[in-house]
């Protein structure tokens, strides 16, 4: 990461008036950016804080805060805006934050905060218990969305992030990408590293407008027409997309709503994208390239590129890591590993990370990811969800007798339910799901549920084990026929079209 700071200092001298950052309110040159980073970093060091949470929507101030933490040598902890209040509280407590940085727009009137310059304010937090010991060398803690609902902190080092940055720069060395637009939350490691860090490392311009201004809300809410309109307005040369944004961009190009065609590189991550969708992009001459990565590996592990692309694969492995296939076909990744999970025993950076994904390397070195070792779902917005977690909520909190959650690749999870009591009519079920959704993080809220008229075992006697557990694989193999026996109920809290899983392409 020192190399990134060195580059910023260099650009501030060589190209002082070149635009580095833009948002809805301001434009900042490289000289101004470097001056702000140094000023905020000094204020952070003077404050004596050790672990700072970065709070707020995408903005120039957020990027300045992040870089200032690197410069000051304190641990930064991005706080995703889409986390629920309980998840945010869990993050603050487990990370042992003793302060948070906010932009002027995010400071509440009743909040005691001190200005640190650069449009930023620091709110000190009382540390009510002894700080958890971090692995030596930790500079950033990135929290996953929490497949079980409880976010997990991944401790990363400057060396690891630097390796990822250099490897990405090498992979894309033949491309000039002068204008990057951040359309994912900056608290997302993929956007943070491969979007902002890489662009600034290369002396490019990064636009970081508030996500609401782009038509995005939370982690999974979207006004597609607004989002496409903003693409036409900002006219970027590069984006990092999750599967749902990929679909919207392609459909916008097909319908004519997307007029901007100046893209040079559209990276797709956060979940699997069907080869048929990528072929549609190819026909439209949209330069869309799929990749693969893990937070534990500092983000990107493999990436397709214009001169080296194989649709359906995740691309060639970057030169800073090694990937091999372990027992049971699980991908094992070494060469750039994390320091450990927050609150757990530190691990050696040289150890191999068990990805939990199944896959293989073909004879030409392209990585193919075929599925997940466990039942983890990844939504179209790149959020990880354990179906067992939501199934427990449905049966224990919403009063359903049986529940099976599915919807890998859908914008929101879906569920096949047997309500149980004959008293549970359609409207009662709707109200129960609405009440449950209100207490879930936005990315985990159910958009549609399918109500069975009888227990699973009455439809197929082999669908349930003797101890009452639903045989997931068996039901999913013939899911369409199961759904044909059920009544579809859409929730009012999430306005979504019918799930696309059975739509004709």
Automatic annotation (TrEMBL):
The keyword Ligase applies. Keywords: Ligase. One of its GO terms (molecular function) is ligase activity. Pfam families: AMP-binding (PF00501), AMP-binding_C_3 (PF23562). It comes from the Bacteria. Residues 13-325 form the AMP-dependent synthetase/ligase domain. This is Long-subunit acyl-CoA synthetase (AMP-forming). It comes from Marinimicrobium koreense. The lineage of its organism: Bacteria, Pseudomonadati, Pseudomonadota, Gammaproteobacteria, Cellvibrionales.
